[in-house]
Every structure is written in C-alpha cells, then in structure tokens.
Amino acid sequence: MMNEKIRLTKEKEMLLMTLYGRAQESRKQEPIIKDHDAEDIIEKIDYDFSKLTIYRGDTVTIAIRAKYLDQWTKEFLSDHPKATVIHLACGLDSRINRVQVSDTVAWYDIDYPEVIELRRQFYEERSHYHMIGSSVVDPEWLSQIPTENPVLIIAEGLTMYLHKQEVYDLFQRLSDRFSTGQVAFDALNPFATRWAKFRKMTRTTGATFHWALKKPEIIEEWVPRFHLMKQLNLFEAPEIRQLPQDAQQVFLLFQKVPWLKKMTRLFLYRFE
Ligand SMILES: C[S@@+](CC[C@H](N)C(=O)[O-])C[C@H]1O[C@@H](n2cnc3c(N)ncnc32)[C@H](O)[C@@H]1O
C-alpha cells in the first residue's frame, strides 16, 4: 500500500500516535528503541501526524513503554520457549518482529476489524503468527486461542479506552481460560485520565479515556490468581537519565509529585 489515506477515528486513530512516536525515537542517534517497521510504515501512509501534536516527552514514554514490554516478552519466552502470546490492541505495532519469536511460540495479534484490515497491508500471517479482528471486550475471540501452553497477555495502550467493568470482565475471562501465564499492561492513574481530555491528540481524534488504576493491588483483589511481579513508573525509568539535560527537566519535575510520577505505569502480573 503506498500513501493510502488513513480513515481511522477515536481510539483506533491513536495507534498512529504510538506508531509515530516509536518511529521518531527509532530515528535518533541513540534511540531507546529501534523500530524499523514503524519507520517504514509511517512513510507509506497518508496521514498528517502534526495534527496530533506529539511532544518529545510523549515519544520518550511511548518508547520506554515498548522497550520494557519487549524485554518482559523476551524474558517470558526465554523461560517458556513453548508458549502462546496474546497481544491485545496491537495496532500497527511490530513487537512480533522486534522480539524475534521462534516457531514454538503461537502469537496472536488482536485489534478491531478495521485495524486488522489495515495491519494486513503491512504484516503477513505465518504458521505461528495470527491476526484476529475483534473488539477485546467481545468474549468470542478467546475460543480461537489454544490453552495448552503458558500464555503471555500484553495490552499496551489499551486499558484507558475501556470501562472499568470491561477491564474487570476481560481479566476474569483470561484467568478462567488459562491455567498459567503472565499479564503485562500499562494503565493511567485517575489524574492522567482527566488530564488527557485537554490534550490536542484526544480532542483531534475524539478518543475518550475511561478506566484508571489507582493502585496495583486492586487487580489482585479483582482476580485473586493474579500476583504483581513488576511495576514501573514510566516517568522514573532509568532511560530518562540518559536524555539530554533539557529533555529531562519535565520528568524530573514530575518525579517530585506522587500523583504526577504515577500518571502512567507498567505492570506485570503472574498467575498459575
Ligand atoms: C494507543 S493505540 C496502541 C496501539 C499499539 N498497542 C501500540 O502501542 O502502537 C490504542 C489501540 O487500542 C485499540 N483498541 C482500543 N479499544 C479496543 C477494543 N475494545 N478492542 C480492540 N482494540 C481496541 C485501538 O484500536 C488501537 O489500536
């Protein structure tokens, strides 16, 4: 597909923001993450990225989030070479290529049907790689996923678009279907969800943020089988220290205020 007009709206259009963020970071001299597919794809689509007003800080946090989720994925697959990966709300993300999975891993990328239709222009299904066009809140897609191997479920940039009950039901369904595995996702805190309403990117796309996570223990109360393994405040990641001095300033300021530093966090839970 060469320079075809993109017609996504709301939360679907937001995948262009994260794609662009990774591409921008990837082009730097010493990037936090290398994402050749993102660099390539943004050249092939016709979309005015400037209308999203993506700040340098956004690019950094998008890259840090992707880097740690890639790392956690590699760690899981190194411990479980025969495994299933469910990548919810994949958008046009290239994690399947960045982590270089072997054929003993069955990988499922899931997003809305319109998104998967677009995704198929850039990625091809292979024997161990599948794409499913469905809302993640529709319980039906889960029946397509095999249950015999340990499972890693990744949800990057998804939970804020769901309502509380939808997140709760999704986690319950995952826990009911799989006997052992891990769940990795990012979540905003209540302040970040409110603040997002004033960002140009949400006003331009019409995307609405709903769910926020106050503290990670809430998930353990919802699903007693889930146990928190790791968490990371993106604004406190070690990568922030490697940024040029002027780029660090806003992060250093945020680090001083608890509800600012916890605006966007990554979580990893295990269950068995
Ligand atoms: C900010 S983008 C993130 C995309 C990708 N994870 C990335 O990091 O580039 C949000 C994604 O969530 C997807 N999404 C939001 N709600 C969804 C739902 N109910 N079912 C499936 N996908 C959903 C959107 O279509 C979009 O691809």
Automatic annotation (TrEMBL):
Pfam families documented for this protein: LCM (PF04072)
GO molecular function list: methyltransferase activity
Biological process, per Gene Ontology: methylation
Keywords assigned by UniProt, alphabetized: Methyltransferase, Transferase
InterPro entries in the cross-refs: Ppm1/Ppm2/Tcmp (IPR007213), SAM-dependent_MTases_sf (IPR029063), TcmP-like (IPR016874)
Gene3D superfamilies: Vaccinia Virus protein VP39
The organism's place on the tree of life at top rank: Bacteria
Protein name: O-Methyltransferase involved in polyketide biosynthesis
Organism from which the protein derives: Marininema halotolerans
Lineage, broadest ranks: Bacteria, Bacillati, Bacillota, Bacilli, Bacillales
